[in-house]
Amino acid sequence: MLDRSLQSVLDDVTARSPHEPEFHQAAREVFESIGPAIRRHPEYLEAGILPRLCEPERQLIFRVPWTDDQGRVHVNRGFRVEFSSALGPYKGGLRFHPSVDLGIVKFLGFEQIFKNALTGLQIGGGKGGSDFDPKGRSDAEVMRFCQSFMTELSRHIGADTDVPAGDIGVGGREIGYMFGQYKRLTNRFEAGVLTGKGLAWGGSHVRTEATGYGLVFFLREMLEAAGTDLDGRRVVVSGSGNVAAYAIEKVHSLGGTVVACSDSSGYVVDEDGIDVALLREIKEVRRGRIHEYADARPSARFIDGGTIWDVPCQVALPCATQNELDAAGARTLIRNGVIAVAEGANMPCTPEAVDALHEAGIAFGPGKAANAGGVATSALEMQQNAARESWSFAHAETRLEEIMRSIHRRCLETAEECDSPGDYVLGANVAGFRRVADAMLDLGVV
Ligand code: NDP
Ligand code: 2IT
To answer: pLDDT tier at 306 (50, 70, 90 boundaries)?
Structure first.
């Protein structure tokens, strides 16, 4: 139940932005957590922090025309939602997927504000992308699309203004094409304008691995807080992209075994443990489908459709997309003996799934804390760019580990302070919210 004052702000936000169900869902989750912070600090309400936080500072929607290899003209829609710059330049990824619309970008941008605040680093929140579908497109088509997208986006971004990175459908290849076009348009090698760059042209060690590695560092802390560890644990990871691949790699290096992963066509089960090198070869190099993994591994089988949450495991790491784990999936996991669930993706668990896990006493790590390692390492990339430095892999990984440990600690301490020990959702939302809200109080009504 929401306090009356919070409910009325949420009603207003929902009414002013209809047809954006994912944004409403993300806002409701934050509103349901921050009651304790609001009760202790009525000045947040008086200063209109909530309605201001829910209204992006700026929303850009633009045409992205491009030509395919047959010479046909296509028109996609580009988005950048610059949500909050209270703590630093807008920061957040770009998603290229046919499902992208304003509501999706707003939910992701809203989450990003609190996630970025939780890292303790100087980054505001934003998100962008396009309804462009890269599947089946040649490198040349992807390049032309990225160049057209950046031709418009370049007017709005900058190392001290807004710093995009990758997300679904945007990895090293796309960041390369976009950085090349930005550099050409501006005649500046402004390394800090994008993160996730290649190591030869301003990228940081560990940024590629950071979200997946960070997720597993966070999971390790959660298990330690529960008096146990990853050693010998059976783990299921959904997705098979950037976040999933490096989460699997880190689980294996810490003694667990990932027995299943997926893409939007189905999932594979491999009792010998997922072979990450093979997975990456299929997904990143061949840009193939997950059944090709089972075709190449005698120990693996492909299941067409169905749900990966049917695979019995002790730890579940949803790393594909929003609302991919519902109440039925959560109940199956609980029945099969899951002890921890941590979100690698953004909002992969439905509110009903989160309620079911909480009621069953399962340790649950929400995305804005558990997957913050990606954006945190982006901020480390910006730091290196500003200083014209390049850190070693070991140094960057140690910084990531420290950041994930401190996010975990901040969540637990805040939950404890709010009389909800062990509630990572409440801890993450209150801790993230307080940092942004306090900055907004200092900065006046802007
Ligand atoms: P990738 O594009 O590398 O991989 C996405 C994976 O998720 C693919 O396996 C894809 O399958 C699957 N997937 C995507 N959409 C759907 C869908 N609608 N239904 C089923 N499966 C789907 O993206 P990332 O690994 O970078 O991102 C995964 C998640 O992690 C996203 O929620 C993203 O927002 C979040 N995240 C990413 C960060 C990063 O640094 N990259 C940082 C923090 C969070 P298919 O190939 O079939 O589409
Ligand atoms: O959701 C996320 O945190 C990301 N896609 C990473 C954002 C970033 O700027 O590195």
So the answer is: confident
Domain of residue 327, CATH code: 3.40.50.720
182 assigned to some structural domain: yes
**pLDDT tens-digit readout, 284-305:** 999 999 999 999 999 999 999 8
pLDDT tens digits along 329-371: 999 999 999 999 999 999 999 999 999 999 999 999 999 999 9
Torsion angle in degrees (nearest 10) through CA of 268, 273, 275, 276: 90
Lookup: tokens for 226: 């529960």
Kindly list the protein residues whose Cβ atom lies closer than 6 A to any atom of ligand 1. 93, 166-169, 171, 211, 239-244, 263-265, 319-321, 344-346, 371, 374
- For residues 188 and 265, membership in a common domain is answered with no
Say if residue 183 is in the same domain as residue 269.
no
Rounded CA separation 345/189 (Å):
32
66 and 170 together in one domain: yes
Shared domain check, 267 and 127: no
Domain count, the chain: 2
Q: Which of 106, 115, 127, 283 is catalytic?
A: 127
Per DSSP, the residues of 238-258 read: E--SHHHHHHHHHHHHTT-EE
Domain housing 256: 210-370
Atom 5 of ligand 1, nearest CA residue: 241
Tell which residue, 333, 378, 437, has the closest CA to residue 30. 437
